[in-house]
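User: Please fill in residues for this 597-position structure.
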């Protein structure tokens, strides 16, 4: 049994002490720390936080040779257990690494647990006893011998499983519910006193039950009880609340979430006209995140790219399929809020419209396909900069619209839905690795025709998706708002009293680019007038007429000339989607089947 003993009793140093014991080590035993955490496709070099590595065998020091940035070689003599000690600095509040202070601790095994090369399939044990007084432990890892607070011994069948069970430490709120007979634990750290835990649990339960039903059938659909069971015996939400930030990371039987504290439901929330407590925009975002990460338990943790069948922790693991695993999951996350009645159809259409508008505002959608965006996530998606909107498209947002386009196409042709495609993929792969050819085959089987042309155009091409006709055929009206000044100029800015008007992005082919504006410029004056907000410039610019523009770039004041394009030309405004008031009968039937109501 490979054993890691973790000591968190010095939280003010933000440092975990780890003691790793390896029975019967190899004569030349290699140890390495992962370069990335599965689910977040960026090489993060966790070894940069590891220090003080030393090893011994039977009380005698063992020489360690460092082979590369994250790998060490221990030259052992005999088969006596090798004991390795090291420290890991942990002060990242994201869900991707590890954290420790006097309030809480958080562990991803990829940050803390050296991989004992050649022994990955051995059972792995984690000892979590040396914690600050009063702390609890929460994780989906199997508890073998723990006290009431969860302190004690945990075990995993191998290294992959060990690092796929994140751990929350500290004094946190703990809730529980059953979904289709499976126990779900919900941990919240950092909540305000008026946090409405009962409402959060009730809403999360609706999402979980709907998704288990989606993949495995519901009792009313007559499925056998055995096939209704999800592929995990217990599930844990590890939710940390912070001032700003939003994100999650999916795991096989748990998820780690962060969201703004103010997005949590509060007791005494105002009721809507149906007498239900109103859901703030922030709370709907949070429910979408819960739904997204939970859907991943099937779609990417089990059903997954063929390239992820065996993960390589040392380097980039390339796949062209994140448009499916992230994009389709993004399509279903909000869809489940609609299906469970947590939002209504109008609100759902507003969420889709927001995604459509976001994609259409990216000139990079003409440069990069979602298949390329998937492959390049390691150097592009997770490394966004001022050029990102011009050079890339998100496999999350456009990927979710590809799912929408397939779903609406299938529904309008009347042979099936995207739900059927997802379940067919699950059944055919046994909940395992798949390739794009499997997706194509499932679409063809459900739709009764080949979707090869759509896959080429939507997934591997850069033309805009035919969403407007597809939505109109489903009884949804598409309209385009008037462009804002920023959209007409092709610029994105941040505004505050401290920074003034600061350019964050100059969009490809726009008036701002033609004028010579650059990211980082501060806009000072337009046509001889000082401006404090970009929209103030609207009254100073005549469409088609050049106007002087004063900017500060690196403390040098430059005079540029900008020409405001006429309102009818150039970039469009945001897209608005509404249920059509009097759709044709087939469109109404399609809309009812898709949006309910
Ligand atoms: Zn995701």
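Assistant: Residues filled in for all 597 positions:
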């Amino acid at each position: 049994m490979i054993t890691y003993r973790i000591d968190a009793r010095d939280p003010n140093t933000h440092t975990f002490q780890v003691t790793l014991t390896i029975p019967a080590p190899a004569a030349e035993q290699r140890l390495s720390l992962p370069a990335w955490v599965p689910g977040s496709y960026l090489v993060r070099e966790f070894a940069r936080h590891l220090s003080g590595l030393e090893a011994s065998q039977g009380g005698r020091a063992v020489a360690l040779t460092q082979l590369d940035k994250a790998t060490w070689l221990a030259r052992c003599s005999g088969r006596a257990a090798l004991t390795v000690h090291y420290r890991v600095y942990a002060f990242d509040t994201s869900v991707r690494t590890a954290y420790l202070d006097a309030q809480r601790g958080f562990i991803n095994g990829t940050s803390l647990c050296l991989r004992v090369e050649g022994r990955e399939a051995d059972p792995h044990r984690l000892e979590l006893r040396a914690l600050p007084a009063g702390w609890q432990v929460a994780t989906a890892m199997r508890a073998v011998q723990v006290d009431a607070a969860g302190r004690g011994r945990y075990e995993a069948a191998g290294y992959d499983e060990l690092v796929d069970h994140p751990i929350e430490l500290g004094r946190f709120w703990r809730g529980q519910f059953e979904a289709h007979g499976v126990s779900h634990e919900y941990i919240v750290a950092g909540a305000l006193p008026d946090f409405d835990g009962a409402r959060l649990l009730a809403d999360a339960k609706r999402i979980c039950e709907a998704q288990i039903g989606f993949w495995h059938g519901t009792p009313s659909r007559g499925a056998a009880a055995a096939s209704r069971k999800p592929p995990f015996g217990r599930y844990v939400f590890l939710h940390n609340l912070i001032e700003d930030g939003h994100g999650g990371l999916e795991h096989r039987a748990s998820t780690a979430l962060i969201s703004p504290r103010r997005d949590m439901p509060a007791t005494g929330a105002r009721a809507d006209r149906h007498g239900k407590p109103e859901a703030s925009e922030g709370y709907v975002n949070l429910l979408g995140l819960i739904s997204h990460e939970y859907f991943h338990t099937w779609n990417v943790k089990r059903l997954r790219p063929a390239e992820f069948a065996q993960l390589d922790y040392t380097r980039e693991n390339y796949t062209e399929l994140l448009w499916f695993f992230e994009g389709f999951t993004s399509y279903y996350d909000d869809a489940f809020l609609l299906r469970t009645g947590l939002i209504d159809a109008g609100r759902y259409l507003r969420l889709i419209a927001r995604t459509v508008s976001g994609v259409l505002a990216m000139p990079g959608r003409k440069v990069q396909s979602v298949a390329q965006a998937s492959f390049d996530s390691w150097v592009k998606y997770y490394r966004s900069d001022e050029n990102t909107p011009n050079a890339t498209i998100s496999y999350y947002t456009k990927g979710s619209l590809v799912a929408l386009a397939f779903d609406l196409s299938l529904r309008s042709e009347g042979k099936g839905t995207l739900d059927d495609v997802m379940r067919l993929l699950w059944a055919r792969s046994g909940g395992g690795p798949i390739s794009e050819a499997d997706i194509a085959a499932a679409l063809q089987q459900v739709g009764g025709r080949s979707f090869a042309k759509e896959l080429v155009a939507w997934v591997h091409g850069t033309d805009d998706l035919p969403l407007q006709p597809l939505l109109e055929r489903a009884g949804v009206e598409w309209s385009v708002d008037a462009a804002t000044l920023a959209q007409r100029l092709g610029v994105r800015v941040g505004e505050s009293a401290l920074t003034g008007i600061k350019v964050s992005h100059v969009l490809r082919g726009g008036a701002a680019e033609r004028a010579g504006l650059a990211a980082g410029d501060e806009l000072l004056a337009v046509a001889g007038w000082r401006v404090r907000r970009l929209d103030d410039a609207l009254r100073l610019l005549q469409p088609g007429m050049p106007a002087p523009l004063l900017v500060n770039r690196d403390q040098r004041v430059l005079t540029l000339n900008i020409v405001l394009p006429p309102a009818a030309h150039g970039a469009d405004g945001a897209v608005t989607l509404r249920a059509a008031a009097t759709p044709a009968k087939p469109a109404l039937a399609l809309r009812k089947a898709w949006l309910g109501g």
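For context: The chain has a mean pLDDT of 95.
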